[in-house]
Amino acid sequence: MKQRLLKKTPLFGNLPIDDIKAVAKRMRLERRQRGETIFAVGEESKRLYLIKSGWVRIIGPQGNLIATLGTGSIFGEADFFLGNPYSIKAEALSDVELWGLQREELEKLVASNPSLGLELSKTAGVCIAPLKKYLLQKLREAPGFSKLPEEALEAIASNLSISRYQAGDFIFKEGEPPKGLFLIESGTVNLFTPEGEEFIALEEGQAFGEMNLLTGRPYSSMAQAATEAFIWCLPAERYQELVSAHPTIKKTLGQELRAPLGPGDKVRAKERLSKMPLFKDLAEDALEGVIGRLMVRFVPGGELVFTEGSPGDAMYVIETGEVRLTKSISPEPVAILREGDFFGEMAILTGRTRALTAKATRDTILWVLYRSDFEDLLVRYPSISLALNRILSERLSDFEQRFLEKHFRKLAWLSGLTREQVEEVSSRLKPMRFRAGEIIFEEGAPGDYMYLIEDGRVEISIKIDGEDYPLTILGDGDFFGEMALLSGEPRSATAKARTDVELWGLEKKDFDELLLKYPVLSLTLSKVLSKRLHETNLLLEQRALLGVRERVAVPAKPRKPAVPKAVRPAKPVVKLPSIRIRVPKAPPSPAYGLQKVIVSAIEGLRRAVSDASLWFRTRPKATQLRITAVLLLLAWLCGISAPATVISALGARDINLKTVQEMGFIQTPTFTPTFTPT
Q1: Which residue among 105, 295, 553, 610 is least crowded, i.e. fewest CB within 10 A of its CB?
Q2: Are residues 436 and 479 in the same domain?
Q3: How far is CA 623 from the centre of its chain?
Q4: In the 3-class helix/strand/coil scheme, how is 46-62 assigned residue by residue?
Q5: Please, which contacts does 568-572 make with residues 24 or more away whose CB atoms are closer than 8 Å?
Q6: Residue 217 DSSP one-character state
């Protein structure tokens, strides 16, 4: 009776008789009394029911009567198949006998006979929950699908259909366009090329055809059922719709899936690899060995191939598409590569991490040679090892040359050195990086490094009366921190990164050795310091005269100056001459410690005007010591480099302090050169 009633229902009526018998066997008899609730709205849908005898009333969520059902009727199936809580209420209108099919029993039936789940899904118009659960598990176990988000897996599972193939039937043939994604439910499928060069036997649970679906390329092999096989298929047109709704499908499959090269790919690969420096001189068998290890990888447009700093596990050849290579310190691309180009080879040659980031600008197909395969090829084919040694030596030499030219030639301090000398200096330099706002060194700290700026901006400042006073901002090619190394004194200024900055640091011991070994470095240093001294003198004139005008405009209360016996009183101010100072438009290069000393002296000069006393005697001991240190430092610089250059610079733009003397501030001797170069 149970089978007869099931056969008459629209839900089970179209099933094969064996499937109906299997369902009937799993159903269990239940009895309910009149007025008893069979299930209520919101309860978990654990069963669907077939009425053996009696009457059942179906009530909607608003309490409205939907239907009255009698013998042979099925109810609760909609929510049961979807896996949702009951959306209706079922109540016994009389004493009733019911056959119930539990969810666990249906899941077992579907797992043992997926075609049953598929037929029920067709009848119900949706992928029934037991079938979806089964397919989700199958997809998670298939290579490449395990990392797909649950939502994407459910979308794929809901669109799979199953087909039966007899032994010898073809699923697809060589040259046909992609038909879909295939997943073997049962049986065996053989993948092979027409020439018989390749043969792969696929078993239950394995997927195939997915790489052609991703790339859109025709099949390069044939798929044939070796035995009777049931195969799930996601049609190509449904795949495109799913990718539009779930872009992560294409991205994740591209990251996870790899496939060997087809016959046509191998012909093109041989032509392209024979032009690469690493493989161009290989024997035929060695080149064939390399091609046999290449794998196809698909990268959607906008996705990364690898990132800077990641392990170098493979090299790549572009079959189709475009790849952009960039470095983190610059938004500009290092290179844009297209069909036939290759990249990433230095990582597998040297074992270093990636120095660049590679990103596909559009859908790209790559041929990949993994480092593990490459190392195995080195053992099998000694000629590859010889080619590796040759190309590695050439590449490292070229890289070193480019590195020196790019990173060190623009540094002002090294501009006068030969290539060999730059190489020695570069071996002593240490790369450093500071983020914007970071302190490189602070005023008063020990001076153990000199710094050369490769990229970025650095602010130099000093403290005056507890406040930071910016002196200058340095950029690419400038250097700083040398004053503390020359004098052996603590840092006289603070250096702070204004932007992210790339520096090269030189330790004091290396600095001293290089100055002695390469006089041209001393000459370059003295020229820069002479220029800084000249600019500081201009600053001194400007600040001194500004201070004078301020004092004349607002005269201070007179008080009796304390005049030492050994010094004559200053002459009274008779007239303030009108003097215009021209300051170069270009921002001056900093003098750091020297500039700080002179600025401190200026402040002392202004206070001396207020006190109407002698300038030098009223200065604090610390200031007097600093001035003395500066004079000694200048004498030392002139002794080790170019005395004539420095003295000429000083003589050419010597500060005229006679004006200050006439104003009655101080009586200071005028500096005059003691030697005139010929």
Answers
A1: 553
A2: yes
A3: 51
A4: CEEEEEEECCEEEECCC
A5: 568/667, 570/612, 570/614, 570/664, 570/665, 570/666, 570/667, 571/661, 571/662, 571/664, 572/664
A6: P
Is 397 within a domain?
Answer: no
Question: Which domain-ending residue is among 216, 239, 257?
Answer: 257
Whether 530 and 658 map to the same domain: the answer is yes
Same domain, yes or no, for 634 and 553? yes
pLDDT tens column, 291-346 = 999 999 999 999 999 998 898 889 999 999 999 999 887 778 889 999 988 898 87
CA distance 300 to 320: 12
Tell me the CA distances in angstroms from 116 to 12, 23, 27, 187, 498, one per residue in order.
10, 10, 16, 18, 70
Predicted pLDDT of residue 678: 31
Q: Is residue 402 part of a domain?
A: no
Q: Which residue has the higher pLDDT, 391 or 159?
A: 159
Residue 644 lies in a domain: yes
- 115 and 27 in one domain? yes
Residue 342 DSSP label:
E
Listed residue (330, 326, 324, 388) closest to 359, CA to CA: 324
Q: For 401-433, what is each residue's pLDDT tens digit?
A: 555 555 555 555 666 677 677 777 777 888 888
Q: What angle do CA 563, 565, 569 make, to 5 degrees?
A: 45
Rg of the chain over all Cα atoms, to the nearest angstrom = 43
pLDDT of 616 reads 47
At position 502, the amino acid (one-letter code) is: E
Cα–Cα distance, 51 to 75 (Å, whole number): 8
Q: Hey, is 225 helix, strand or coil? A: strand
**How many structural domains compose the chain?**
5
Residue range of the domain that includes 494: 412-517
Is residue 89 assigned to a domain? Answer: yes
**DSSP secondary structure letter of residue 412:** G
The kind and range of the H/E element at 201 are strand 199-202
Cα separation, 366 vs 219, whole angstroms: 17
In DSSP terms, 183 is beta-bridged to 207, 232
- Phi, psi of 297, rounded to the nearest 5 degrees: -130, 135
In this prediction, residue 674 carries a pLDDT of 34
Answer whether 313's CB lies under 8 Å from 371's CB.
Answer: yes
Beta carbons within 8 Å of 550's beta carbon, 6+ residues apart: 606
Same domain, 212 and 242: yes
Asked if 257 and 211 count as a contact pair (C-beta separation under 8 A), the reply is yes
**pLDDT tens for each residue of 205-249:** 899 999 999 999 899 889 999 999 989 999 999 999 999 999 999
Evaluated on CA atoms 485, 489, 493, 496, the torsion sign reads: positive
Same domain, 500 and 433: yes
Q: How far apart are CA 646 and CA 30, in angstroms?
A: 111
Query: Bridge partners of 548?
Result: none
Q: Are residues 655 and 529 both part of a single domain?
A: yes
Same structural domain for residues 368 and 325?
A: yes
Question: What is the CA 190 to chain-centroid distance, rounded?
Answer: 42
- Which CATH number goes with the domain that contains 41? 2.60.120.10
